[in-house]
Write a structure and sequence with these properties.
Blueprint: E1 12-13, E2 19-20, H1 27-38, H2 41-56, E3 61-65, E4 76-80, E5 84-90, E6 94-99, E7 122-127, H3 134-155
């Protein structure tokens, strides 16, 4: 028989690499935990940003990447749709929302205030007491999604019909 206390749950990995099974915390649950753990204005800011991202793109997929001791192993919240839209890192004094392809996005309200010298990424640093321009942020998220989708469409289908082997 089974030794008592030994977990026998096997984790199934789905296509997106999300763990399914009992007790496996999903990326969304990890982000919940990160927000709760911050428990100050940074948690509130991250929660608000997350809410706006989901409003702007109901099909957004939440992931958590780069788990390491410096971010207390909770990792960095990542929002994806046909590729990475943005990541939400928290520091002592700010919440940094980095757009993977921010340099290619129209930013009429000049939300980007960080990583401006980078060739590809752009970021928005939110500090304690900052008011979020919700309308402009949602427009930026939608633009990032549209860009990802257009890039993916130009790249053509991921699976080539010719290479498929019969098993």
């Amino acid at each position: 028989g089974n030794a008592p206390g030994r977990a026998t749950t096997t984790m199934k990995k789905t296509k997106t690499g999300v763990e399914e099974g009992k007790g496996g915390d999903s990326p969304s649950q990890r982000i919940d935990a990160r927000i709760k753990e911050l428990s100050d204005w940074r948690g509130e800011t991250l929660a608000r940003i997350r809410f706006l991202i989901k409003q702007a793109d109901p099909e957004v997929v939440e992931e958590v990447k780069w788990r390491k001791p410096s971010n207390s192993m909770t990792g960095v919240p990542v929002w994806e749709h046909a590729g990475i839209i943005c990541t939400g890192e928290t520091y002592k004094d700010k919440v940094k929302l980095t757009f993977a392809n921010g340099a290619k996005l129209e930013d009429p309200k000049h939300l980007f205030n960080s990583s401006l010298e980078g060739g590809t990424r752009r970021a928005i640093d939110f500090y304690d007491g900052d008011k979020i321009d919700e309308k402009a942020l949602k427009a930026l998220i939608r633009a990032a999604v549209a860009l990802n989708i257009s890039v993916r469409a130009k790249a053509g289908p991921v699976r080539s019909e010719k290479k498929r082997k019969s098993v």
